[in-house]
């Protein structure tokens, strides 16, 4: 499980290394992941018929996922790996806030307060890193989009083989970006980097095959043998691994203000408090861990 989480955390480093623009990076990632998934699903004979209603939901989720990744990699380009990852760690908080709207349930006062704590952390980071303001906003958009498609995934997550679902989501997201790319090229005032270099191809294959396909398989195999608490704790370490990698590789700690660390502490505290609420004795664990597998 920790290896899977480490691979998800390594995503941010790869996003920094790839020289392509954010939308091109995601375009190639979704194309390669869909291709890998198609081969795996065919080999494992996991193709199943999906009704039009659920297929439409998978297509919608795939489109949201594509926009989420564009925002996430955009945050890395506009700011740095650390800021993008710590903003992404608020996705779980937003999930708990959005879930009642989709499932027609009442908001929990405790969860609202925890959400406000996390948002306060993001605000401190935003104020302390004005030079990276657009990167912080982009990371926040990525977290919100991740929360939305996580909630939408709940009603369908256990209905079909996961790899089949991921194939449809990756494919539909890739098609959306394929439609958007010509308009971006037409109206963009700056040149958009679309052609990968030799090293870009290596990073893209690692991003798709290792950080998506392999990480997903590792996580699902681990979930057969470990408790919900252990898996939740491991997944919440993703931004920690990613930030530590960014500190070691890029020395990003030299560029961050002390208020960044205070904001990060508030966000991590809110994540831990929410995790403890979800996993306390007698409360049914959510399916968030399963949904997160293979997404980042």
Fold topology:
Elements: H1 2-17, H2 22-44, H3 52-78, H4 81-88, H5 91-103, H6 109-128, H7 133-153, H8 162-187, H9 198-222, H10 228-235, H11 238-250, H12 258-278, H13 288-292
Overview features:
single chain
Characterization of this structure:
This protein is mainly α and about 300 residues long. The chain has one domain (about 1-290). It contains 13 helices and no strands. The chain has helices at about 1-15, 20-45, 50-80, 80-90, 90-105, 110-130, 135-155, 160-185, 200-220, 230-235, 240-250, 260-280, 290. The longest helix has 27 residues, at about 50-80. The protein is globular. The two termini are about 15 Å apart. About 50% of the residues are buried.
Indicate the mean pLDDT: 84
Task: Return Rg in Å.
Answer: 18 Å
Helix content: over 70%
Count of separate DSSP helical elements = 13
Low-confidence stretches: 285-295
Give the H and E element order.
HHHHHHHHHHHHH
- The termini sit apart by 14 Å
Mind describing the biggest β-sheet? Answer: none
Residues in β-strands, percent: under 5%
Give a count of the beta strands, DSSP E runs of length 2 or more: 0
How do you describe this structure in short?
By secondary structure, the chain is mostly helical.
């Amino acid at each position: 499980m920790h290896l899977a989480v480490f691979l998800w955390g390594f995503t941010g480093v790869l996003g920094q290394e790839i020289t392509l623009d954010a939308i091109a990076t995601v375009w190639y990632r979704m194309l390669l992941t869909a291709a890998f998934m198609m081969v795996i699903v065919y080999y494992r004979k996991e193709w199943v018929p999906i009704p039009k209603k659920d297929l439409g939901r998978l297509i919608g989720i795939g489109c949201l996922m594509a926009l989420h990744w564009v925002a996430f990699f955009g945050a890395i380009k506009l700011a740095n790996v650390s800021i993008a990852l710590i903003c992404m760690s608020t996705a779980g908080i937003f999930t708990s806030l959005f879930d009642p709207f989709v499932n027609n349930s009442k908001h929990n006062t405790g969860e609202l307060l925890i959400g406000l704590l996390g948002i306060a952390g993001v605000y401190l980071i935003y104020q302390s890193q004005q030079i990276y303001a657009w990167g912080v906003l982009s990371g926040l958009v990525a977290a919100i989009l991740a929360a939305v498609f996580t909630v939408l995934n709940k009603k369908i997550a256990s209905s079909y083989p996961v790899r089949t679902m991921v194939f449809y989501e990756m494919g539909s997201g890739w098609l959306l970006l394929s439609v958007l790319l010509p308009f971006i090229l037409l109206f963009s005032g700056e040149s958009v980097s679309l052609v990968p270099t030799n090293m870009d191809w290596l990073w893209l294959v690692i991003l798709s095959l290792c950080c998506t396909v392999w990480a997903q398989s590792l996580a699902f195999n681990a979930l057969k043998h470990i408790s919900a608490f252990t898996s939740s704790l491991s997944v919440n370490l993703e931004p920690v691994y990613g930030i530590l990698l960014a500190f070691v590789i890029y020395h990003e700690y030299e560029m961050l203000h002390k208020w960044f660390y205070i904001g990060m502490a508030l966000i991590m505290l809110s994540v831990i408090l929410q995790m403890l609420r979800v996993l306390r004795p007698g409360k049914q664990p959510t399916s968030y861990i399963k949904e997160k597998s293979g997404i980042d």
